[in-house]
Amino acid sequence: MGGATTQTGTGEDRRRGAVVAALMLSMALAALDSTIVSTAVPQIVGDLGGFSVFSWLFSGYLLAVTVTLPVYGKLSDTFGRKPVLIGGSILFLVGSVLCAGSWNMGALIAFRVVQGLGGGAIQGTVQTLAADLYPLEERPRIQARLSTVWATSAVAGPALGGLLASYAGWRWIFLINVPVGAIALWLVVRHLHEPVREKGPRARIDWAGALAVFACGGVLLTALVQGGVAWDWISVPSIAMFGTGVALIGAVVAIERRAAEPIIPGWVWRRRTIAAVNLALGALGLLMVAPTVFVPTYAQAVLGLAPMAAGFVLSVMTLSWPVSAALSQHVYRRIGFRNTAVVGIAAALLILLAFPLLPYPGSAWQPALVMLLLGAALGLFQLPLIVGVQSTVGWAERGTTTASVLFCRQIGQTVGAALFGAVANTVLAGRLGGAGSLDSVAKALEDPASVADPDRLRRAVAAAVDSVYVGAACAAALALIALLCLAPRRFPVLDQDGERGGEQSGGAASGADGNSGGSQDAHPHHSPLSQRTD
User: How far apart are CA 187 and CA 118, in angstroms?
Assistant: First the structure.
């Protein structure tokens, strides 16, 4: 199946269980990062200053994670998952300690970038190891556990961050990573043993490609993050940044085409299955901005809920998502990976379109129900695509494939934040007859006595968020089109011998996957736990 062979024996099961625990702890570090820091911003700014640039606490981390994902994916395919995960975890923990010792906002932002450099290794390698550890039929189990980590972090992160900032000091938000990360590192070092690989020619690292990808991603993502914030979209800095980004895209293409072992190999986009999943999950990142960014604002500004209650409206999505993901295997075993994902994203499209139909001002249970259904639909959409695409490649290509999927999803989120932020502010300005931003209006509504016509502002916010959800529905439609037009009806999964075959749901595999050369699997299909290297 392109995955690990099932091992028997109590000792082997214990070892695999320890590795799974390490992966969940490692993923928790990355998953908690943004939510736990966001609640401590007032204390951080009050201590260090730098209010005008505090948004880079999040943007800097996001940039570092996103642009390093392809690099770490290639490194894990070349040198193995274990050294990449250990190196990334150590870098993340070093960054955490440095963040805790920051003396001003500039230093904290720089150390957050260091954290992000480690976070990119953690996110990509954990997802890749999840596929290495389990054969195809058991893979939903570990993926559901990782989804649960993200869901729990989304709910617990703000509360934990608030408690630490209020009673222990904001520096403990970063120091708490050290014991958790140390336990995860010990478990990985002690229990993760990758199979011995045949010695071949010394691997050539595409350092020029890595630097070009890092520079290109950094410039374009900075342009998207800062556009409309630090400068106008139509301005000299914006045009210069995007122009430089386009030029760097050309440089990346030229370098990667000549490289012997490119960081972003061409087959990632030449194979129909991988290209379709990349586009579909890029669209997922785009549409996810609507619930995660705008629903809390909607709940507070339009429904008048307290911050904790507003967080609950969003959190119900993170509760239904992992449950749906865990159950999706019963669907894709019957109808296949692509068709299951099509059902999920089609349902998400209808649910997103239902949001603008909610009554004004409505009750809290109405958007909460929409979020609950949306989480169920997206769980049915995302997990089959990740499990499916990882099963179409062998060990030697799995890290690169997984990284490309996560990279596209991260890019989608960044583009979505910039695009939907502009849409919301444009609708708001049109409704209010002048310039304005969603954040400023939402803050004004916190004190209705200071606003001449609060109902008008609330209706403007509702209209802005409705427009964002229509945009998110368009992103869902793009994902649906990508799957229907590009993805083969049956994903051509690999069997235990590395040969392509049909999905477990039956039917012939679609052999036309766009493969145009490249080794299917340069390494044997063994579990990372099946053979010790020490």
Answer: 18
Nearby residues of 90 by Cβ (< 8 Å), 6 or more positions away: 118, 185
Give 55's DSSP letter: T
Residues in CB range of 8: below 8 A, 6 or more apart: none
Residue pair 476/352 in contact (Cβ under 8 Å)? The answer is yes
Instruction: Kindly give the parts of the chain with pLDDT less than 70.
Output: 1-13, 34, 52, 154-155, 195-203, 229, 308, 434-437, 439, 442-452, 495-534
For residues 82 and 526, give the distance between their C-alpha atoms in angstroms, rounded to a whole number. 15
The maximal CA–CA distance of the chain, rounded, in angstroms, is 74
Query: Could you write out the three-class secondary structure of 271-287?
Result: CHHHHHHHHHHHHHHHH
Q: Quick one: 516 exposed, middle or buried, by C-beta within 10 A (0-12, 13-18, 19+)?
A: exposed
Region for 91 from its dihedrals, namely left if φ exceeds 0, alpha if ψ lies in -120 to 50, beta otherwise: alpha
E runs forming strands in 98-229: none
* Alpha carbon distances (Å) from 326 to 203, 321, 329, 376, 380: 38, 9, 7, 10, 9
Would you give the distance in Å from CA 334 to the centre of its chain?
Answer: 28
In whole angstroms, give the CA distance from residue 32 to residue 192: 24
> Which of 491, 129, 68 has its CA nearest to residue 275?
491
Retrieve residue 475's tokens: 């992103």
pLDDT for 74 equals: 87
d(CA 263, CA 254): 12
Cα-atom radius of gyration of the chain, to the nearest Å? 23
Taking Cα atoms as reference points, which of 151, 131, 180, 182 lies closest to residue 20? Answer: 131
Specify which residues 493 forms β-bridges with. Answer: 501
What's the pLDDT at 532? 33
3-state secondary structure of 231: strand
Distances (CA, A) of 51 to 44, 106, 296, 404: 9, 11, 22, 34
The sign one gets for the Cα dihedral 479, 474, 245, 230 is negative
383, 140 Cβ separation under 8 angstroms: yes
Q: What residue spans of 227-304 are helical by DSSP H?
A: 236-258, 267-270, 272-289, 295-301
Query: Alpha-carbon distance 52 to 360, whole Å?
Result: 35
pLDDT the model gives residue 325: 86
Query: Rounded distance, CA 510 to CA 517, Å?
Result: 17
Helix H or strand E segment including 12: helix 10-38
In this prediction, residue 519 carries a pLDDT of 39
